[in-house]
Every structure is written in C-alpha cells, then in structure tokens.
C-alpha cells in the first residue's frame, strides 16, 4: 500500500477557489484563469501514490507548484479540493490535535533556507522541532544528538550556525527533520542553495542515509541532474499539473510529451543510461553442439563471433569463426577453443564508464547478471545510437531479456 496517496488534489490561491476549480473542470488553463479572474492555480488535480521507502522526486520549473504540492502533504497549506491519505487516513479531515500528532510523529520537513536560529547552538537548533512539540528536555536532547550523529555532526553540538559551512548548516537542517524519526521526510529544495560540489556530497549522503534508515523521502528540486541522481521515481510538474511520473529511465527514454522531452533533451545520457539500455541480442551456442554447428550458425546469422553459454545461459566465453574452423580442422571439441577473456559488465553499469573498455576490448562486451547469465552484448553502433537519444535502441535488449 502507498504510504501517501494523493487524489485529485487541487490548490487555488485567490478569492473564489471553488469557482476556479469549476473553470479547471471546463478545461481552462492556469494562464487563462489568472488572466480572467486573477486567481492562481497552485496545484491542479494531482493524483499519485508514494511507496514506503522510496525517494520520490517532484521536479519542475520555478512556479510550477512543487512547494505548494509538498506543503499540501502535511497541510501546511489547506487544499481547495481533493484528498491526501497518509497510510489510508485522510489528513484533510484531521482536526488540530490529529494534525499535530501527524507532524510530530510521522512527517518531518527540511527547507531550502536552512532556517537555523543564529543564537542557538547546533544542538539547540536540531532539537527545535521536538521542543515545539513539547517533548521533555532529556528525551529531545537524546533524539537530537542521535540525529546529529546520523548526519555526521558529532562533536559540533555546541557550535553556532555561523561557525559552520553551508553544507554543514544544511546537515543541521537535515538533523532537525530527522530528529523525531519520522516515516516521511519532506525536503523542499533542501540542497539548492549549496555549492555544486557540496551539493553532490549531500546527495550522496542522503542516499546512504536512506539506504540505512529506509525512510520515505519526498524530495523537491528544479534540477534535473539532481532528480536523476537521487530519485527512485520522478514526478514532473508544469503549471500545477503533474505531466509525467516514472523512473529516471522512463522519463528520459519515454518522455510523455513535448514538454518533458524539452526538459530532458540536454541531459548527458551517458551518465544515466546503462548497459541494459544499449545491449543487443547476441548469437549464442552451448559447447556440446560442437564447432561445425557453430560455423553453421555464424553463416546463417552473418556474425563472426558466438557467445558460448551453458544451458542455464551462464556465460562461458566466446568463439570466433577462426577458432571454430581451427577446431574442425584439428578435430577439437568446441570447449578447447573458447576464449574466456570476454569483458563482462553488469546490466546497471552506466555507459559513461564503458567507453575505454569498449575501445580496448577485442570482442563486444558481454552484459552479465548476478547469476553470470548472459543478458546481452554491447556493440559500438547500438551504444552510440542509444546515446544519440534513439529511444528504440534498447529494444533488442528488452527482446533478449524476454527470451532469456
Ligand atoms: P515552485 O515551488 O514550483 O516554484 P510554488 O508552489 O511556490 O512553485 O508556486 C506555484 C504557483 O502558485 C505559482 O504561480 C505561485 O506564484 C503561486 N503561489 C504560491 N504561493 C502563493 C500564495 N501564497 N499566494 C498566491 N499565489 C501563490
Ligand atoms: Mg518552491
């Protein structure tokens, strides 16, 4: 079950939100509603589910509705219409006490502006949320210390924010969001104000933290690289609407419309696409079929190399036409002429890291899964065409996967 389920969620800013919702229903655009009524569509009929333990990224240009959407999830903003279910419970109908309980126990938040109090120590900043919630001193101290440790700030408890670098200040913000051990962490452009290198470190650490703590994270960014790097799934917003939800690969390789396509066209695909996207189906043979059959197969399929596997598709090596001819001439079994020095990579290897090995390898690189099974091979043409954004180039790989 989804941990958060959003149904037809809409937020209108202005004097008569219900009227604006009606106009949306009649197909009016955000722009037209603003022009005619001066009301602003913050979020337009968003529906989606967030799974426990995933990093769900909400991405979009400035003004597309990301902050409004994330604030609707913990009701910092009241929705105009629609539902937000947390573990099946509608938070839109919650009273003040229930809502406080929800924010206190289940949902934490980290903001872009670190929002630290300059006259409070790091520790006092980290425990601020707990203090507001009325948690007694000893316990909140303990929780805050734990959270600071998690984000690597042990030893800095008594420092003040201005003694810390930007990255460290944001760690304090992160610790504050984590202090009450929430199920869900909402992060609104949490890393956007950081220097690029520190930002990359923080992304990396967030992934480590996530792997350890298995929190559900809703992460907002306007930066596509960041979204691709950390998102399990990405929701792309435009004018308050969600235009596509998918894994990073799906967004890149199957953009839902022209808007998404334009959003992603400048991405360096080699850093995102993996071996499994570019691999094609190899011709294979099992050794007991012998060198004559091997030669026959090569002639039929017009290739000069066969990949040799056992019956379970585990890769044993490769034979070339020369190898097979030699085996026939010298009356050798196929095993005797198998080349075992085939370069192997896992399916999730990014193409960016493969150029050198591709240039050096004598035979096409084999893509091999954890059980040593051959999933496909990488030939230069298919890799280049995948990188050039030919979105069908991976079809061969997908086809092979179905057959294997
Ligand atoms: P993002 O976070 O993607 O930059 P926001 O959610 O902040 O976008 O804003 C979405 C839209 O709602 C924008 O057009 C913005 O001007 C408008 N908006 C946001 N907050 C308010 C508000 N309090 N009053 C009026 N309009 C608002
Ligand atoms: Mg915002």
TrEMBL record:
Keywords of this entry: Amino-acid transport, ATP-binding, CBS domain, Cell inner membrane, Cell membrane, Membrane, Nucleotide-binding, Transport
SUPFAM superfamilies from the UniProt entry: CBS-domain pair, P-loop containing nucleoside triphosphate hydrolases
Its membrane topology: Peripheral membrane protein
Domain ABC transporter: 28-264
UniProt GO MF annotations: ABC-type quaternary ammonium compound transporting activity; ATP binding; ATP hydrolysis activity
Localization per record: Cell inner membrane
Major subcellular site: membrane
Keyword Cell inner membrane appears in the UniProt entry: yes
GO CC field: plasma membrane
Top-level EC class: translocase
Catalytic activity entry: a quaternary ammonium(out) + ATP + H2O = a quaternary ammonium(in) + ADP + phosphate + H(+)
SMART domains assigned: AAA, CBS
Domain annotation CBS: ranges: 275-334
Short name of one Pfam family: ABC_tran
Listed GO biological process terms: amino acid transport; glycine betaine transport; response to osmotic stress
InterPro entries xref list: AAA+_ATPase, ABC_osmolyte_uptake_ATP-bind, ABC_transporter-like_ATP-bd, ABC_transporter-like_CS, CBS_dom, CBS_dom_sf, Gly-betaine_transp_ATP-bd, P-loop_NTPase
UniProt cross-references to CDD domains, sorted A to Z: ABC_Pro_Gly_Betaine
EC number: 7.6.2.9
Assembly with partners or alone: The complex is probably composed of two ATP-binding proteins, two transmembrane proteins and a solute-binding protein.
Family indicated by similarity: Belongs to the ABC transporter superfamily.
Protein's name according to its UniProt entry: Quaternary amine transport ATP-binding protein
Organism name: Cohnella thailandensis
